[in-house]
Amino acid sequence: MKNLAFVQRNDARSAVGDFSPVLSVFSHYDFGNTISPFLLLDHIGPGRLLPSTRRKGVNDHPHRGFETVTIVYEGEIEHRDSTGGGGVIHAGDVQWMTAAAGIVHRELFSEAFSQRGGRFEMAQLWVNLPAADKMSPAGYQSLSSADIPRVELPAGAGFVRVIAGQFQDTSGPARTHTRMNVLDGQLGAGHELIFDTEAGDTALVFLLSGRLQFAPDEVLEEEGLAVMSSREAGFAMTALENSRFLVLTGAPLNEPINGHGPFVMNSYEEILQAYDDVKNGRLG
User: Fold this and answer.
1) Nearest by Cα to 283 from 95, 83, 79
2) Cα separation, 67 vs 269, whole angstroms
3) Nearest-5° angle of CA 241, CA 207, CA 226?
4) Residue closest to 92 by CA, chosen among 147, 11, 24, 53
5) Residues 241 and 211 sit within 8 Å (Cβ to Cβ)
6) Dihedral (C-alpha) 175, 180, 184, 189: value to the nearest 10 degrees?
7) Which of 39, 66, 162, 171 lies deepest, with the highest CB count within 10 Å?
8) Is 187 left (phi over 0), alpha (psi -120 to 50) or beta?
């Protein structure tokens, strides 16, 4: 089975637009293809939005060359984009947006949630696209909580929601460009969970809350990222406390990554083209 290669921690918090606090869990700027096909993960919150008549969030901005996956744990986000896609994403829902050749979108707290206020927590993942698909048409998938299958674990140990890919015999609803698993779950204290992954695959575990153990001297604390070795297949983890986690596994692309701001392409020339297309109104 895969071993724990290393643990990544970043205790600094920042703001993205009006979203705060935001923890940058990992980024391709630091790890490159080590985490491929994944590019970036932000943990937004937990926080509390005070009631307001002003809609807070991130207003219109462009993307090209990858996909964003937003998982809402608490609160409500409204998404609108240049393809006409959008809607309100409630707790338990997932938004899978394919920027590809170009999209302009906004992400704001919903009008109703803005007015009443309350707790919010989200995770946003960036998934890279293979070079052959980076300039394909943009798209949008709205995955409601009811659309996402939930696998109950034996003995009341917890559950795993299958957003993309497969867990045991259950497949997730998200359409992906490459082979990957995006799994969101909870594991009760004292229980072990085994994940099937292929040898050579990237395997990441982000711990939203709790404590997980991979070996007697390998413990993952809250808001830490476990990066598993690429060798061997599968890995196991045991919950030392009731734990909430996000598991990301997939086949690495092994292609050049050139990312600047809202664009992730394969070359610097393609990045310059993206900025030129925004300047001249050709993107989104």
Assistant:
1) 83
2) 20
3) 110
4) 147
5) yes
6) 160
7) 66
8) beta
DSSP 22: E
- Write out the two tokens for 11: 């205790």
CB atoms within 10 A of CB 221: 13
Contact 89, 80 (CB under 8 A): no
Cis peptide before 37 (omega within 30 of 0): yes
Longest dimension (CA), the chain: 59
Nearest to 74 by CA among 102, 51, 53, 44: 44
Distances (CA, A) of 259 to 25, 63, 104: 17, 11, 17
Q: Which two tokens stand for residue 37?
A: 């096909």
Residue 33: strand, helix, or coil = helix
Secondary structure class of 84 (helix, strand, coil): coil
What amino acid is encoded at 10 in this protein?
N
Main-chain dihedrals φ then ψ at residue 53, nearest 5 degrees = -85, -10
Tokens 């979203």 appear where? 19
Dist. CA 94–CA 102, nearest whole Å: 21
What tens-digit pLDDT sequence spans the chain (284 residues)?
999 999 999 988 998 989 999 999 999 999 999 999 999 999 999 999 999 999 999 999 999 999 999 999 999 999 999 999 889 999 999 999 999 999 999 999 999 999 999 999 999 999 999 999 999 999 999 999 999 999 999 999 999 999 999 999 999 999 999 999 999 999 999 999 999 999 999 999 999 999 999 988 899 999 999 999 998 999 999 999 999 999 999 999 999 999 999 999 999 999 999 999 999 999 98
Q: Both tokens of residue 224?
A: 């830490």
Contact 233, 211 (CB under 8 A): no
> Distance between CA atoms of 53 and 92, rounded to whole angstroms?
25
